[in-house]
Amino acid sequence: MSCSTSSTQMQIPVVDFSQWYNSPDASSRQQVAHALVKACQDVGFVYIVNHSLPGSVLDEAFDWMRRFFELSREDKMRAPHPEGWAVHRGYSWPGLEKVSQVMSTGDDEDARKKLREVPDVKEIYDIGSEENSVQPNQWLPEETLPGYRNFMVQFYWKCNKVGSEILHALAAGLDLEDGCYLTKKAFGPQQPAPVAALSTCAGRGVGDRANRPMSGTYRLEFHNHALPG
Question: Which residue range or ranges hold the Non-haem dioxygenase N-terminal domain (predicted)?
Fold first, then answer.
């Protein structure tokens, strides 16, 4: 008896949003919308190019995050992740999260106990809407990194705008009568706007927040290539 296995490399679709923004032709916009929905249905991931967030702004965001993560541990801890599980804002230091938080063990309590002993060594800094009182942002004192808060607040709303555009396109691709239906669900009065999560891997990471079902999350990663992982 012989067994053979085969694997195929998944190709993540690329959707060009330029026609969504610039085409006066409704059919061209609908083509973009349907391509976006198809990518989500068939693969679950999609690269979106030519969106409204300029590359120069992204470069500046990465530069600010590099400067943040190059601060001393003492300085970064001036904006710490609050205690407990309810608020996900501020600086999470290596070891704060555990592998058990990102890996399923079913009903195996012994496996969960062992995983709780394994720290997740990444660093992450989370921000969200300044208007969300349920998830208040945790900011550094201005003198620690002057200009950081001002840029990140503006950057958040630019990301928010892109998120809204994507949700409108998804609504169109799903042929929903109400083109604002998804944005109402995502940005309604009881819902926080999408989190802008920016992180760096400071060592060999063992968990990935991108696997968690967080609706409307923007994830930007800055890797310190001087460290393993």
Answer: 12-141
* Rg (alpha carbons) of the chain, rounded to whole number: 20
Q: State pTM to two decimals.
A: 0.72
CA distances from 79 to 83, 185, 188, 219 (A): 12, 30, 28, 19
Cα distances (Å, whole numbers) of residue 37 to 15, 52, 198, 212: 10, 19, 26, 20
Residue 73: how many other CB atoms lie within 10 Å: 10
Residue 138: pLDDT band with limits 50, 70, 90: very high
Q: What residues form DSSP beta bridges with 91?
A: 80, 125
In the chain, where the domains are located: 9-50, 53-223
State which amino acid sits at residue 15: V
Please state the φ and ψ torsions of residue 91, each to the nearest 5 degrees.
Answer: -90, 125
